Amino acid sequence: MNMIKKTLITLSLFASLGIYAQDVTTYTPNTLDEGIVYFLPKTHLKVIVTANKAIYTPGELCQYAERYLKLQGVSAQPKEYWEIQDIFVVPIGVPDTNKVYAIKLKDKMVTSKVELTEDGIIKAINTTNPIQQINDIPLQNIQSERIDPRNFMTEEMLMSGSTGKMAELIAKEIYNIRESKNSLTRGQADYMPQDGAALKIMLENLDKQEKAFTEMFSGYTQHQLQKFTFYIEPNTEIKDQVVFRFSQKLGVLESNNLAGKPIYINVTNESNLPVAHEEDKAKKKPVGVIYNIPGKAKVSIHDTDKKYFEKELAVTQFGETEVLTNNLFNKKVNTRVVFNPRTGGIVKIDKD
Q: For a FRET experiment, which of 34, 40, 183, 346 has its CA 20 to 30 Å from that of 67?
C-alpha cells in the first residue's frame, strides 16, 4: 500500500481531531512522517441526457377519426420513437493527481481542523462545509394515467351491433361533452355548481371523459423517460467533440455508434485570469494552504439543427492556483476557510 493510500485511510480521524498547522508542501510519496495529504480538484463535465421513449398505440376506432371528428393523419399502425427531452451539464470535482499537497503537523503551532471529502479533496479549515457534489437531475414523470373509456360508456354504446355504430354514438357524446363544458364556463348551464371548487371538479371530470373517448379515435401515446450520463474532461478548449449519438429509432447511443446522429459539445475558455509564466511557477514555493482560482468556460451542446444547452460554468483547468499564507493561522486569530469541493476555490473566509 503506497503512502497516499495509507494517509487517506486516516483522513476521517484527522478531519475530526485538532492538528497542528501548517507547513504545506507538494506531496512526494514516502516522505511524509506525520500529516495530512489533500487533493485539489479538477473539473469533469457531467452531461445528463433525458430522453423520452414514446410508444403509440392506435385507437380501436381510428378508421373513423376523420369521418366523425375531422382528425386527419391518424395512423392505424403502432409506432415507437425516441425524443431528446433535455440535456443538462454540471461541473463536478475529481481529485487532481497533479495537485497533491501535504500538511505537515508541527508542534507549538496554532491548532486547526481540516475537513476533506471522502476522496481526499480539501473542503474546510477550522469549520465544516455543507457543499456537496451536484446530484443527478431527478426524472420528472410525464406519464399521465390512462383512463378506460368503457368506464363512461352508456348501455347503448356497449350494446351497439357494429364498430361503425359505436363510433357514431361515441362521437356524438364527445360533442355533447364539449357543449356542456362551454355552457358551464359561460355560466349558461341548466344546473350550475354552487361554487368555484365544484365547478372545477365538474370540468375536470368532463375533460377526463372527453380525453378517454377521443383516444378511441386518435390513439394514445405512452411515455418512458430514461436518463443517460456522459463525462467530458476539458483540459483544453473543445470544438465539436461528439459526446453521444442519437437515433429516433434506437435512442441515445455511444459516440462511436454510427447508427445515430452526432451530438456535439463545445467548451470555450472565457477566463480573463493572467497566465503565470513557467519560470515564475518554478520560483514560487508553497508556504501555506494551496487552493484553486477556477476559470470559466462557455459550454454548449448541439447538433446540426438545434442547440440543447449553453451556459457559463466553472472549469478549474482554465484557472490558476494560489496560496493562503501561514500568517492567517496564528494564536491571535481564529481563521475559518470554506472551499468549494467541486472547484477547489475559496467560498468564504471568516476571522475572529
A: 183
